[in-house]
Write a sequence for this structure.
């Protein structure tokens, strides 16, 4: 089976009826980027930069960050690398930041909230990313956006950083695409507004599910309720993809749903453009995609949108034979 899957590494991720998707990988470290092209990834759809900040006694400086981002950009040889700005807080701690203990860390001071409060963090990171972008094709993505103000503030810091780099005569990547993660229902519901201003969306189902059905993604006691096939989650995903299509933008997904072969007909039918997953899932998902017709999947989605429960959706997906 391994040899069979290996055959898919070289193939494009295109359905039988010609719908092409971009198949991308999630990474957390520079080292992981080295073998991505040979594993069939066309891009990095999510670089979780927080791991560069964790397990250290102090904040990595601009130079350290620059080197890491540059190495990933170079390893991908001009293919896109979506670099997510620091997503700390929630379950991820940074001792040197002295973060407050919170009753509800996942609803608290994390990710973009923290970075917009301690702006120097975002400033330094964006400088490093833009400088690294000279050596490849980087895109920037902001995590945990809940409303338009946060996105606009982040964009403003990005503009300041560009201006500063220009003034200093330091080379940096121009015309970098800026996107936001959709992992909070409020952002999904406002997707048509965001779509006028951002270049792309990436749906983070790991958090989106947690916030939509109010289920802690780490709590085993309620994990039976945690399900990306929940009809409400599917409606949010559809809202986001439709909004991006209407505005001529693109939508990716970097939560674990994108790497689930069972979800593939649903995501294809909904028209998801970029799929980002752990490298080990790439061939499996590509095999499924190349075996499907998008038009069949769109018909399946019509039926799924009429279902009441995640169990029904799962059953329909299991029964679906292309
Ligand atoms: C997500 O929330 O789906 C996501 C990809 O981000 P993380 O898992 O890092 O929170
Ligand atoms: Mg997340």
């Amino acid at each position: 089976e391994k040899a069979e899957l290996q055959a898919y590494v070289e193939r494009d991720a295109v359905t039988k009826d010609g719908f092409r998707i971009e198949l991308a990988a999630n990474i957390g470290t520079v080292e992981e980027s080295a073998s991505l092209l040979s594993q069939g990834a066309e891009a990095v759809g999510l670089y979780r930069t927080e791991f560069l900040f964790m397990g250290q006694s102090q904040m990595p400086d601009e130079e350290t960050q620059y080197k890491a981002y540059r190495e990933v950009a170079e390893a991908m040889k001009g293919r896109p690398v979506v670099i997510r700005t620091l997503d700390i807080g929630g379950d991820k701690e940074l001792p040197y930041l002295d973060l407050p203990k919170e009753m509800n860390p996942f609803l608290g001071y994390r990710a973009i909230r923290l970075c917009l409060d301690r702006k120097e963090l975002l400033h330094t990171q964006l400088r490093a990313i833009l400088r690294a972008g000279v050596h490849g094709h980087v895109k920037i993505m902001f995590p945990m956006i809940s409303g338009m103000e946060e996105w606009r503030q982040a964009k403003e810091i990005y503009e300041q950083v560009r201006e500063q780099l220009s003034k200093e005569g330091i080379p940096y990547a121009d015309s970098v695409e800026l996107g936001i993660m959709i992992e909070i229902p409020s952002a999904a519901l406002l997707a048509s507004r965001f779509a006028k201003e951002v270049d792309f969306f990436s749906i983070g189902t790991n958090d989106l599910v947690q916030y939509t059905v109010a289920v802690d993604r780490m709590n085993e006691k309620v994990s039976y309720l945690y399900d990306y096939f929940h009809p409400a989650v599917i409606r949010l995903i559809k809202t986001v993809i439709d909004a991006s299509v209407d505005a001529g933008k693109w939508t990716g997904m970097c939560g674990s749903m994108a790497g689930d072969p069972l979800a593939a007909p649903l995501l294809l039918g909904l028209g998801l453009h970029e799929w980002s997953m752990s490298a080990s899932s790439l061939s499996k998902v590509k095999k499924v995609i190349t075996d499907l017709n998008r038009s069949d999947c769109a018909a399946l989605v019509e039926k799924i949108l009429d279902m009441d429960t995640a169990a029904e959706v799962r059953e329909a997906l299991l029964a679906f034979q292309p």
